[in-house]
Each structure stands twice: as structure tokens, then as C-alpha cells.
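Good day; I would like, with your permission, to put a structural problem before you. A protein sequence and the C-alpha cells that stand for its backbone fold form the material at issue. Thank you for your consideration; the sequence and its C-alpha cells are set out here:
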Amino acid sequence: MTRRFVVSAAALAALVAPALAGAQLPTGIRQRAIEIGAVGRYTIFPESDTQVENVFAGGGRLAYYLLNNLALEGEVSFGVTKPTVPLLPNRTDLDDVSHTLWDARLLYNTPQRGRTSLHLGVGYGYDGFGRLRQAGVGPRGHGPTGLIGLRFFLTQRVTLRGDVGGLYVIDDQEPRDEANTIDTGDRTPRFEPSIRLGLGVLFRNQPTTSVITQNVTRTDTVRVTQVDTVYRDRIAAATQPGANAATGTGTGTASSATVVIGVVNFDFDRAEISSDARRILDDIAASMQRPEAQRLRLILTGNTDAIGGESYNNRLSERRAEAVRAYLAGKGIGADRLTPRAAGEGNPVASNENPEGRATNRRVLIELNNQ
């Protein structure tokens, strides 16, 4: 059974590692984050050494992230099993054997790729069987532990974890067993593989807001409800020879000038075009179809708030920019005039520490480009 378990764990690692080798390197779970979770455990006991059946157990986990992706984690789980040897006469109280497993480990999560990441853990565990049991049944011990598994982000905060690992019991002395009513006999080193499935909630997993400036002539990011004469004047100014597209003045040149002509916002973790966004995009599409604007192009830059992993946010910002591109293309704007870009969470215009700021950052910036 132990050999089969080890082979299965190695096969899982072989399948997962190549997929993660080419992954981007986002921040993932951030320093000072806290994770609280519940765990279910199935432990396979070597019958010749423990004289008990395999056990299902349940418990909890608590982790604190010392660095990005690196946590100090504690886990405790409790279950009840049964001995595999005949009971002593008139000792029905020995029919159940409790088992508590205590684990402390360092846990490393690989950078998040989409909604998944790989995690590896090493630490030390204590194999605590019940105080009262027959000779040779459930010998206690402690030793090094390890695990490997996958984490799946159900939401930005809630994650599902599955892993395989085990405890290698190296201690052959347990003084507290000497106080048992029934002597447990000697212990020998053994390996106890286990399978775990857990659900966790992450807290304080938000970064400090940083601002990266964009290379644009004007950064007018005020949310608008329609394209009015201000935008039409900008389009007209951009088509005049020798005009500055950002200011509408007669100085400078329109070549390579950019000017923000609209912003559309999105709901949390969504990339669907809202009714307010449709009104803005409809007016922009109508203005871009005017004869004097036929040579102008649009740059569509998707942005997100800072909740979640960087890799996931990059993909979400890409989906938002693509949604705006598809909508404008459906309104008759040629594909060669639309350039979608993804900025992820890297260009906030408001604080990510409050709901209002995060709502402002969930946007696609629409810039007019005169090239």
C-alpha cells in the first residue's frame, strides 16, 4: 500500500511540474496574509506496525505568510479507528482507538497560474493515539512530515486544497505511554501516508497600492455617461493638420498623440459590458465612424483592482479589453483600428484599500490615437 501511495504522489508531481514550468511569475499569496481552513484527512496505517485500521479524520489549519507565497502553518486533525487484533476478554472499552495528528510545517505555494497553484510543505508531526489501548496497538511517535498538492481558487479569497503526503515516525520511545492501563509495547520506525482535502479562507491578501504612470499626453480618467461635444471636439482637433490631439490647439503635431476619450467600468471579477458602458461605447462608435475620424485608432487598456493573484488579474484585464474591442467591432469599427491591451492591477488610479477605489480601478481606458 505504501509503495502504491508513493508511486501515485510521484506521478502527480510529474504531471503538474511541466505545466507550471512555463508559468508567469505573479506575486500570488502575499506577505502577512492569514489563512484559516478546515481539513479532512485519510491516513493509511502500516498494519504490522500499528495494529489499527486506516482512519478518516477532520480538523483545522492556521497559516501565516512570512513572505510572498511562504507560510508557517499549523494543523491538527482528530479521528477514531479500530484495532485489527482480537480484543482482550471483557475489555469492550478498547474497541475504539482515537488518533490525533499534530503538524507544523513550512508551506510554499508556487506563483498562481490562473486559478491554480502547486504547494509543497515540510515540517514535523506528532502521531497521538488514545491513552487507553491494547499492547502493540497504536504506538505513538513523532517525526518529519511532507506534502505536495494543488490549490484551486474558488473565489479571490476562498481556496480548495488537495494534497498527498505522510509522516515518518522515527521515535521509539514515548514516556507517556508508560502510564497507560494497557502496555502498548515497543515501537519501530514507520511511514504513514495520508491524503487531505481542505477548504481555506485568505485574509489580508491585498498589496500596498502602487502607481505606475502611463505614457499618455492627457490622463482624464473621470467616468462619463456619454460622449458629448468635448469628445467630438477632440476628434475634430485630432484631424486638423498641425493640431495637438490632447489640447485641440494649433501647436505641435497630431502624429502619435493620444487622448483619453472614455472610461467604462466593470463589476467585480466580471468582464461583461454593462448598460452604462454600452451607452458610452455606442457614442464613441458613432463618433469614430464620422468621415473626419476615419484615420483615427483606439487603444483599449483593461485594468483590474488588486484583489487576487497578478496572473489572474492580467487575464481578467485582457478579457475586459477584448470585450470592449468586440463590442466596438460589432458596431462597425474595423479591427485594424482597435488595439486591446492588458495592464492588470499595475496602473491603479484610486486606492485599492476601499470598495470605492477598487470599483474605480476595474475599468477599460479608451484612448484616441492619431498615427
In short: Residues 310-330 form the longest helix (21 residues). The chain has a mean pLDDT of 78. Residues 229-370 form a domain with the 60s Ribosomal Protein L30; Chain: A; fold (CATH 3.30.1330.60).
